[in-house]
Amino acid sequence: MIDKIYCAEIKPEMERQRIKLAGWVYRKREIKDKVFIVLRDSSGIIQIVFKEELSKEAYGKARKVGIESSIIAEGVVKPDPRAPGGVEIQGDRIEVISNVEFFPITKDASEEFLLDVRHLHLRSPKVAAIMKVKATLMQAAREWLLQDGWYEVFPPIFLTAAVEGGSTLFKLKYFDKTAYLSQSAQLYLEAAIFGLEKVWSLTPSFRAEKSRTRRHLTEFWHLELEAAWMDLWDIMKVEEELVSYMVQRTLELRRKEVETFRKDLTTLKNAEPPFPRISYDEAIDILQSKGVQIEWGEDMGADEERVLTQEFDRPFFVYGYPKHIKAFYMKIDPEDERKALAADMLAPEGYGEIIGGSQREDSYEKLVQRIIEEGMDPKDYEWYLDLRKYGSVPHSGFGLGVERLVAWVLKLDHIKWATLFPRTPARLYP
RNA sequence: GCCGCCGUAGCUUAGUCGGUAGAGCGCGCGGCUGUUAACCGCGUGGUCCCCCGUUCGAGCCGGGGCGGCGGCGCCA
Predict the structure, then answer these.
(1) Which residue's CA is nearest to the C1' of nucleotide B68?
(2) A82 in the same domain as A205
(3) Which nucleotide has its C1' atom closest to residue A186's CA?
(4) Which of A53, A382, A407, A409 has the greatest number of CB atoms lying within 10 Å of its CB?
(5) Tens-digit pLDDT profile for residues A347-399
(6) Is residue A392 part of a domain?
(7) Domain that holds residue A41
(8) Do residues A106 and A120 lie in contact, with contact meaning Cβ atoms separated by under 8 Å?
(9) Do residues A130 and A212 both lie within one domain?
(10) How many Cβ atoms from other residues are within 10 Å of residue A406's Cβ?
(11) Total domains, chain A
(12) Lowest mean pLDDT among A55-59, A105-109, A152-156
């Protein structure tokens, strides 16, 4: 590792100090006997001036270097009001590690082109800022989970057939058998709670749906929690505490990056427990009062959800959905057989669902009945049903879409910007 | 699966009535006493997505195909 300092570490107080930098040429401007190079590294940018009078050799090399070339430069710190950021480097040495003739990304690139050259786009400070925020959100999640006593587990990604509507699963050859890519670790986490009680996992999930929306990817990162002895209300508390900690911690550690994407931090700052809780019934009432055409029993579509999220200035829960629009493994509300003990967490500002959670059906008989009702075969769920045969307990869990959370936190217009190499029905490369 | 839109230079695009395909950016050369995605001048660069048809002549009109984008459904 070379002995260099980061661009962001350079401060006006370091005047006259000699320093070494390594990074990439972000901008270059030539004026008569000077070359201005704005150098970029993972921390930020700094301007280096190469003057012919200071070093003819360095000046000559700097003149020839192309955008995005990798270089090592040396010089002296000099505060200057004309420099971006108020400080610059008077450069007298430059070593060109790898020169670039021409860099494909220029100022008029379309979003589509940027995705075509995503491997090169990743070096932009804006993308780096998103990835830093994503990393910090997950760091915060780990901090919270650790201090609250949750065990991280590592569930399988290869699955056998028939879990929750096979049409959304990616199919692949597994020697002489057929396997599917996991779309949720949930069933496996449910098995894990019998030994560990409170477990979580972070895995990729795959959905073979040709969804063309700003909140769907075919591959996304899924943070899932499952806990024994918790009912729906317990798990909702976990959800709001976790999300709140992730958001507040990120505001603390990554304020600068967050602010480059959103000016108004209100909804983030408001994300403190308790989050508002409204029932599905209340949600329908609100929508009907807003003139939305929706009847009790119908699922909320994207349009309805958007209207609802605009009624809130922080994340909120909708609980008590009709059972027929929810998954078979969710427990039926004993006080109202039409409903499932399910709750979604929706982000405000039009973002909508970031968490789907529920209390799970823990009775063997009822679960078998639900599987049959949904037109599925209990034989396909033998091991899962076993969990209800041998020491079944009340338990609950949820799944959080990591990219969806990032998209809301940074007010991104599409969750694909929250991932390194987005996978959509049409995009598998790069 | 359904609805809508779009394919012209490396990128972003203009292209009138069907008549030799134009610009900006990038890149190259030159200029400029401190630039801020610098600026100025000159130069460089085309399978007009593909096929078929109409026509003396198609980027433009007609038919078919392929690819992509936006939205819905599905969901995290």
Answers:
(1) A426
(2) no
(3) B76
(4) A409
(5) 999 999 999 999 999 999 999 999 998 888 898 899 999 999 999 999 999 99
(6) yes
(7) 7-98
(8) no
(9) yes
(10) 24
(11) 2
(12) A105-109
